Amino acid sequence: MLRQHLEGAYVIACDEHGTARASRAFAAEIARLRDDGVRKMVFVIGGADGLDPSVLEQAKGKLAFGPQTWPHAMARAMLAEQVYRAVTILSGSPYHRD
């Protein structure tokens, strides 16, 4: 089932060895991918033992939530919030950190 979702997608692995990004930088990356024609992005969050090496190999990017270890549910919530924040930044809504 995972393979079906990854097919044709720009895959970003949420991984401790990825790059942590500020909200504006994350939004800028999403904008760059959008402008480059990416129409499907998939974020993959691993379980307690991380992601399978084959998924990491397929990933075109890696995103870290910092050096801490987070429960799967918290990582999902933080990712959803950051995607929402990126979309609002890109839509021109005021960003309270400016």
Structure description:
With 98 residues, the chain is an alpha/beta fold. It has one domain: Alpha/beta knot (3-Layer(aba) Sandwich). 44% of the residues lie in helices and 18% in strands. The protein has 4 helices and 3 strands. The protein has helices at 2-6, 23-35, 53-58, 72-90, and strands spanning 10-19, 41-45, 61-63. The chain has a 3-stranded parallel β-sheet with strand order 2-1-3. Helix 2 (23-35) links the parallel strand 1 and strand 2 (41-45). Helix 2 (23-35) crosses helix 4 (72-90). The chain starts with a helix and ends in an 8-residue tail after the last helix.
Q: Mind telling me which CATH architecture this is?
A: 3-Layer(aba) Sandwich
Order of helices and strands: HEHEHEH
Q: Label the structural class.
A: alpha/beta
Report the uncertain regions.
none
- Regarding CATH, which class? Alpha Beta
Radius of gyration, CA atoms, in whole angstroms: 14 Å
> How far is it from the N-terminal to the C-terminal residue, by CA?
41 Å
The biggest beta sheet, please? Answer: 3 strands, parallel
* Average pLDDT: 89
Question: How many extended strands?
Answer: 3
Form type: globular
Strand numbers in spatial order across the main sheet: 2-1-3
Number of domains: 1
- The CATH homologous superfamily: SPOUT methyltransferase, trefoil knot domain
Proportion of beta-strand residues = 15-25%
Q: How many helical elements? A: 4
Percent of residues in helices comes to: 40-55%
**CATH topology title:** Alpha/beta knot
